Amino acid sequence: MEQQEQHAEQRAERAQPVLQLLQNERHGVLSTLSDKLDGWPYGSLMPFALTPQGEPLVLLSTLAEHTQNVLNDPRVSLFVHDEAGTRENPQAAARATLICLAEALAGKESVAAGERYLERFPQSARLFQMGDFKLFKLKVERIRYIGGFGDMYWVSRNDFAAAGAQ
């Protein structure tokens, strides 16, 4: 039993670089499955904030193509990379692809998420006043992390959740 607990702690520790990357970076590429183009991937530059557990929060306009895609199929990915490291050597920089389910937020959860989003992006306050913007949480299912050459692995939903709870 003790060995299993140690193994679980080690797996959760592997999620820490992902959390650090998400905390340091402020935007990524949100890929959705195109409703108009028969499911082809559709990428959009996307600012994001984080829940207390480290899951991304995105503010989407219902008028946007990517939002229509999400409403049709909530399976998305968010690609985030170490922007400074990418300038020096893109192949050596840390990066992660988060495989997620997008979930529209409502009620108290939306209010709390909105506060977190505005902490990171105070200039977005005017968007919250517009009726067509909604907050979505990207519920992490799995993560592919690459810390540099030869440093790559998958992180499970449970291990990411355990790391975010620490």
What does this molecule look like?
The protein is 39% helix and 37% strand. It is built from 7 helices and 8 strands. By secondary structure, the protein is α+β, with helices and mostly antiparallel strands.
- Element-by-element helix/strand order: HHEEEEHEHEHHEEH
The total count of helices amounts to 7
**How large a portion of the residues is in β-strands, by DSSP E?**
35-45%
- Averaged pLDDT: 90
Count of folded domains: 1
How many β-strand runs?
Answer: 8
**Span from first to last CA?**
21 Å
Helicity range: 25-40%
Keywords:
single chain, 166 residues, alpha+beta, Pnp Oxidase, Chain A, eight-stranded antiparallel β-sheet, 8 strands
Compact summary:
Helices cover 39% and strands 37% of the residues. With 166 residues, it is α+β, with helices and mostly antiparallel strands.
Write the layout of secondary structure elements.
Elements: H1 2-14, H2 16-24, E1 27-33, E2 41-47, E3 49-50, E4 56-61, H3 65-72, E5 75-81, H4 83-88, E6 95-104, H5 107-120, H6 125-129, E7 133-148, E8 151-156, H7 157-165
Antiparallel strand pairs: 1-2, 1-5, 3-4, 4-7, 5-6, 6-7, 7-8
Helix pairs in contact: 1-7
